Amino acid sequence: MIQDKFTQISQQIEERKKFINNRLEVISKLDLIINILKYKIYEVRYECRKNLDMLHIRKQKLRNACFKDLTEMQVAMELEEIDNQMKEEQRNVEIQLESLKEQKIEIQLEYESIINTMDIDMEQILELYNNLLGTVEEEKMEADPIDIEVIEEKSRPTIDEFKKDIDYFNEIKLSGWRISNSEEKLSDVLESKGLKITKDGLLITESGRLITIQEAKEEDYLQGIELDMEKSPLNEQSDVVSSKTSKTKTTTSEASSVYSRMDSEDVSYLKENLGKPLTLALAEITAVQPRDPIHYLGHWLFKFRYNQELDETQQIEIDALTAERDRLAKERWHKFLEEEARAAVMEMIMRAEEQAMKNELQRIADEMAALEDEEHEENFEDEARDVLGEYTGPKTISKINP
């Protein structure tokens, strides 16, 4: 009866162990997804900063070319276009960051809910373990002294195994139910400093600035951190890869006969057309580790080609829009010149009309003055006629006799 109880409790503990291990796998995957999202957030900020720096350089070049190759109006239009691109870039980055942060928060909430259930599972497995110990003690109390040693020998392996598992679970519980290796620990420490490390050995700050390890040390980002790149997890990974490569030398030598039949043109063709997408796809597959990597690779390559065609279409549209913008700018410029010329002609006409009006007014004033002079002379003659009478010529005076 007691032995059946021991077996039953052992089965329950095994079920709890299996359940906890399954949850640990889920937590590990969620933790990986969270790290990927964190890297994407850093990369989005880095790409945004790089694009904004390029746009700033374009603006500076345009300002320098203001009095050389382009007119002021063309420069002003280009600067306005660059400002719009910068605003659009910032809006897109904000949308991407908001989406990534929402995904990260959602996964973190799920992560925390699983951790809460893990704590409950741990309490249950501890309770079952104590019940198992109590069952063994109960069986020893009811058994004969001769059988006590047999009972201990029989139950000891199971109890030791469960104790080892419980100690392991307790250790993981103290780390927040995270099974972290040295690379993840290094990543967490760097993240607390506001940094992310890339596979090239460079660091990205929270603002998206790309710096080297030496620059990070000079700017006190790595204060209190001993970072030996020769012994870093990145180089440890390269050592693992090299060891795996040495194990696959036989396979490589077999495949080399196939490559030897390929001429240099075929190799160049494959390198030119498949080198970049395959490198990017394999890097992402290594990070994500999907359940079906072949299906993931096919889907990734299809998506890569689709995005490539979409980029080409967008580039054609951008070129067409740029040409249309240049055409409209030229039309505006010609229209501006025509309006300036028309304004100059109108000003000349108005000045001529104003001068003609002044001349006409002067002529009228002169005529009025002449009329006034004539009227004055006529009035003078009339007055003289009234006083002296009408002039009839010389008259003879009669001689006076003495």
Automatic annotation (TrEMBL):
Name by which UniProt lists this protein: Uncharacterized protein
Residue ranges with Acidic residues bias: 373-384
Protein source organism: Brassicogethes aeneus (Rape pollen beetle)
Region annotation (Disordered) ranges: 233-252, 373-402
Annotated InterPro entries: Dpy-30_motif, DYDC-like_DD, Sdc1/DPY30
Entry keyword set: Coiled coil
Any single GO CC term annotated in Swiss-Prot or TrEMBL for this entry: Set1C/COMPASS complex
Biased composition (Low complexity): 238-252
Span of the signal peptide: none
One Pfam family, short name: Dpy-30
Coiled coil: 72-117
UniProt superkingdom: Eukaryota
